[in-house]
Amino acid sequence: MNAANRKVYVVDDDAAVSKGVCRLLRSAGYEPQAFNSAMEFVQYYRASLPGCLVLDVSMPGISGLELQSWLEKLNSPLQIVFLTAQGDIPTSVNAMKHGAVDFLTKPVNETALFKAVEEALRRAQKFAAARTETEAILTRLATLTAREREVLEHIVSGQLNKQVAAQLGTVEKTIKVHRARVMEKMGVTSVAELARMAEKIGIANLPVPSSASPAPPAPPNHRVSA
Amino acid sequence: MQAELGNTGILTGAKAKLGAGAQGWGAGINSGMLRAGLLVFVGYYLGAQLGLALTFHPHPVSVMWPPNSILLAALLLSPVRTWWFLLVCALPAHLISEVQGGVPLRMVLCWFLSNCSEALIGAGLTRFLAGSTANFARMRGIGTLFLCGGLIGPFLSSFVDAEFVALNQWGNQEYWVVWRMRFFSNVFTALTLTPAIVIWATGGWQFLRSISKTRWLEAVVACAGLLTASLWTFCWQKAGPDSIPSLLYVPLPFLLWAAVRFAPNGTSAGTLCIALLAIWGAVHGYGPFGSHSPQQNALAIQIFFIVVAIMFMFLTASIGERARAEERFTKAFRASPDAMLISRLSDGHIIEVNERWEKMLGYRKSETLGRAITDLNIYTSRANREAFLAVTETREHFQGSDVSLLKKNGEQLYAMISGDVEEIGGEPCWIFIIRDVTDRKRAEEAQQNLAHLTRVTTLGELGGSLAHELNQPLTAILSNAQAATRFLDMDPSDMPEVRRILKDIVQEDRRAGEIILRMRGMLRKEEARMLPQDLNEIVVEVLGFLRSELLIRNVTASTRLAPNLPSVQGDHVRLQQVLLNLIVNACEAMGHTPASKRIIVIETQEAGEGLVQASVLDHGPGFPSRNSPQMFEPFRTTKPNGLGLGLPICRSIVESHGGRLWVENGVGEGAIVRFTLKTEVEVTA
């Protein structure tokens, strides 16, 4: 495993807790980093941040659950392990529904913590790998011309060259040429492969190549503190 | 009584007159006033006759001149608005008696003026200094009378008199001789006659009625002794070089008897009686006052009786004060709603208990008297008895000690005991006052129990957040400890890190300990201890205690604490409880408030008049105003798992601290609960 995969962010408003948890993680070879509030972490956050987030639920200002939903909107690869001093079932169910890896109660035993963090890191890596693949497909897709994309959509929907040509108002030979170009540009050798790729990125809602990437959502509302 | 005291008709007249005077003479000239005027007329006339009869010829001033003193007494006993009438009534009496003696009319009128001036000065000043309700049987009353009526009145009016004598060229004496003779004569009369009249007029009847049969017998014996001694001394021995001057002390023991046993009434009457006999004797050539020139004899009689009157009247007044004080004490002792017990200081034996003692403790008087107070089985414990002994042995005064005592039937009694060492019957004694405070104590206990119950309930409601609070240090400790084990297992071990970890563990353990300590403090059931408290500090403590609760409820608390807030008098835990309850209530009230507006504000400020005010403001829906009075009823709650004792107990705690608690609605939204507490009273040493 490389260094990036050992990164654990610990967010807890109680400095003594985050310090202790970070120590424990460091003693097991992880690379922990402590944050004393969710806001501190939000300010630090970058899209490419890999790894695992050990997150306290109740904190003054932005709570753990609010931070989770913010990250979810950003489609962050970070995997969250919740750590709470008072875990009630509705809260934990809600957290798990929104993709949390685990919901641990304080005081947490090292075995449970390591197991959850390990799982989180594994998922984060998988998520990162999947995202890398999707991004590669999207890059290739961006090289297609408008006509080639039309042809691609028809092919992956299982139509024959002849049918495609009829629908696009051209001859079968032209379609064949387009099809060869599409296969080449997408780096595949069979239609089956192309279909799997299209499925992965969800061909129905392909991003429009020309539009800019959407702005990240605003950080959760930060309440006034006394 | 008059006859027994061997008095002349003057006193009878004066007494009758003053009896009417005591009933009060009405406004205008009514029948009462007319009667009083008549009495003054008769009294003045008879007094003048007596005065003339007691004149040593060729002395122009008699030894004793009763009219002035009778007039003074009459004024003292009457309302000021009737004085003019009494003086008018005295005039004819004066004219008749003086003109009979062949004195020119001008001189007669002048003397009337000087006599009136004496009575007016004496009565006016006495009224002014002692008030219209002065009691002449008391030290203050008799002192004022002697000073104003007996001294200042004669002193000033004698100048007027001597001036008139000189003006009318009456007699052939020098100015100062006339002044001196008149002064002493009038002082003597005012000191012997006026007290007798006013004292008998104001309290004579009451005095006679209060005398028991044996007392009557004693009075008869005393009177007989006094008369015999006086007659023998003043009216039996022939005056002359053979008479023994010290004989005049013979009647004095009987006068002392009167002073000790028969109040100012007996003393004043006795003094007057001896004085009259002495003058009569001297005029007729008997007794120790007949041996020199008439002038010298007159002066000797006057000075002797001035001294005797002052001495014995003050003595009897002071005896009276003492007797009254003792009587008051006895009455208070008997009727006291508190149990009282008197024990001798020397051997601790109980010499007196009151009725309430018998009822309160169940011991009859007969089984209490004569025993030592420490022998009674009234102490709930040995330590209790020792403590009591220690206090009575080392101190001479203590106040308001709360103790529990055992009744004879074994029931327990809460009492507040005060004690004082006083001399009683010539011996130093402890007087203990025992007040039954069982009811108050029970009420306090009930409040204490209720306060405790609600604290426990509140802490129960806060269970989740308290667990959260405690979990934080526990988490830090566990993580640190497990990390330390791993750092030790490493090769090489990271000893510096392990040392740092252990230090942190110790710190976190202390933190957990403090949380538990705070909780135990709140859960403890203790009597309230009123000590100076900093309310601001308590606000900060309670917010610390509620940190997790606020966090979980997503509530932000802000404070506006007045700097230099005076300390308040109160019990720490109770005041914490009030704030805790109010803050938790405020949080609960904001359950449906959007998270961004869940703010509570805690304010403290000086409220003037020795009060400090604290307020808890929330942003909830506010109080439905029509429910306001009911909110303080116990067991009324809007919470599914609340006891409904929050607000009532807060109010009862605040009120037991001498403060007030009330609710208001905020200006825009939300509710405000305010309460006041008394600031600590500066105790000056």
Number of strands of chain A: 5
The main sheet of chain B comes to: 5 strands, antiparallel
The radius of gyration over CA of chain A amounts to 23 Å
Biggest interface between chains: A-B, 30 and 37 residues
Radius of gyration of chain B: 43 Å
Sheet with the most strands, sense and barrel status of chain A: 5 strands, parallel
Poorly predicted parts of chain B: 1-27
Outline the structure in words.
The complex is a heterodimer of chains A (226) and B (685). Chain A is α/β, with parallel strands linked by helices and 226 residues long. In chain A, 52% of the residues lie in helices and 11% in strands. Chain A is built from nine helices and five strands; from the N terminus they run E-H-E-H-E-H-E-H-E-H-H-H-H-H. Chain A has helices spanning 15-27, 38-44, 64-73, 89-97, 110-142, 146-156, 161-168, 172-186, 191-201, and strands spanning 7-11, 31-35, 52-56, 79-84, 102-105. In chain A, strand 3 (52-56), helix 3 and strand 4 form a beta-alpha-beta unit. The longest helix of chain A has 33 residues, at 110-142. In chain B, a hairpin with a 2-residue loop joins strand 9 (599-608) and strand 10. The model of chain B is unreliable at 1-27 (pLDDT under 50). The longest helix of chain B has 42 residues, at 294-335. Chain B is an alpha+beta fold and 685 residues long. The radius of gyration of chain B is 43 Å and the shape is elongated. The two termini of chain B are 57 Å apart. The chains are: A alpha/beta (226), B alpha+beta (685). Chain A binds chain B through residues 13-14, 16-17, 19-21, 23-24, 26-28, 58-60, 63, 83, 85-86, 105-110, 221, 223-226, and chain B through 464-465, 467-469, 471-480, 482-483, 486-487, 490, 497, 501, 504, 507-508, 511, 548, 551-552, 554, 556-559, 595-596, 599.
